[in-house]
Amino acid sequence: MCGIAGFTTRNWSAPPERIRQATATLIHRGPDQQGVFQSPLFSLGAARLKIIDLDHGNQPILSEDGDSGIVFNGEIYNHVALRAELESLGHRFASHSDTETVLRAFLEWDKDCFAKLRGMFAVALWSESQKRIVLARDRMGIKPLYIARQDEELFFASELKALLVHPEMDRRLNLAGLDCYLALNYIPAPWTLVEGIEKLAPGGWLEWRDGELSTGSYWSLPFGVSHAYTLESAKEELDALIEDAVREHLVSDVPLGVWLSGGIDSTTILHYAAKASRSQLKTFSISFHGRSFDETQYVQRAVKQYETDHTELDLTPAEDLGGAIEEFAYYSDEPSADAGALPVWFLSKLCKTKTTVALSGEGADELFGGYLTYRANRFANKVSGFPSALLRTILRALQYWPVSDDKISLEYKLKRFLEGTLMLPARAHVYWNGTFSDAEKKALVRPP
């Protein structure tokens, strides 16, 4: 994980130390090396976490003539193949860093290069002679990139705090962003909680050219594309895709581990990682001994089967849970109502004691329909013909059922499900994820 920041100075002058101040707010993302580039027209900085080519690749990286450069956050998994193609076209490299590969790809193919990148990234590239900056973000928006526009000026950063270094930024709550948070439990692009600051869209690019802005996308979800898969052929292709993806993610010049929860997703990642790795894998997990949702028995089965070097932490109030929650406000920038955030915080700290990079099963529930809400959709279809008066009567009766503090208890699911059946289907689906209803939002927020 790295961090980038930058801004233009077409019609104003920033203090010389401003870019270093912005970059310094991101040092937790990139503790290994920090660097800046400054010119009369724009300033850019990077905080680097070294993963590939530890001895080279310090950022920013400039072209031979010094006219163009890059600051980069992410990892490109096909950078070796791209490097070979670029070398065949006459490019010469000074490092083995994937960051340099992205710079040279941009010099060769301009914005068309982004569609060639397979990985997760947020990047800023520039050309002094063209008075130009180009920003881009990976297809899924894994790496964050915040932007702000003020007249003919552009500001950008990996985190909000690097933008709020600028006193020129307004500190006003964005009500649209707040509405998103209360309705979805997070704030999707392009919204943020700060008025005037946006997120660059996943799969999107933004170009600033001497005060003029343009935006576009290099990729979008391929809706409507169908394949004549059988169950067996789909299984075979999925197997090959996961195998290739995990193998690519294992490429690292620093110690690497696997987060293991005991569930299907993380155990799947471990299976393919063990298949591809020639050395013993390090695994890490959080346990909840004595609680109904503890999955230690499944973790131990996976550890035994794949013979991993395993480290576990039992999460209890003795771990200063309150202090960790307070730290979220600084490191997260924006809130996220994810019940797993606290365990992941401690899992990350545990993992950092032995590794720099970790693989996890995050995102699999979204890809493969693993959430209980998908079942709720099917059940809702079956009760859709019931009179709403009957559903409301049952719901009122359920209010006498004592609230349980178990994770996703039966009491919680029944009440939540019935409340959702009284909503429009699309609204019900996110409500089943634990969000506020429209009535609850109105009760909570009263616009000035």
Automatic annotation (TrEMBL):
The record marks E362 as: Important for beta-aspartyl-AMP intermediate formation. L-glutamine binds at D98. Gene3D superfamilies: Glutamine Phosphoribosylpyrophosphate, subunit 1, domain 1 (3.60.20.10), HUPs (3.40.50.620). It is an enzyme of class 6 (ligase). Pathway: Amino-acid biosynthesis; L-asparagine biosynthesis; L-asparagine from L-aspartate (L-Gln route): step 1/1. CDD domains: Asn_synthase_B_C (cd01991), AsnB (cd00712). InterPro entries: Asn_synth_AEB (IPR006426), Asn_synthase (IPR001962), ASN_synthetase/amidase (IPR051786), AsnB_N (IPR033738), GATase_2_dom (IPR017932), Ntn_hydrolases_N (IPR029055), Rossmann-like_a/b/a_fold (IPR014729). Its EC number is 6.3.5.4. It catalyses: L-aspartate + L-glutamine + ATP + H2O = L-asparagine + L-glutamate + AMP + diphosphate + H(+). GO terms for molecular function: asparagine synthase (glutamine-hydrolyzing) activity; ATP binding. The active site is at C2 (for gatase activity). NCBIfam families: asn_synth_AEB. This is asparagine synthase (glutamine-hydrolyzing). It comes from Candidatus Acidiferrum panamense. The gene is asnB.
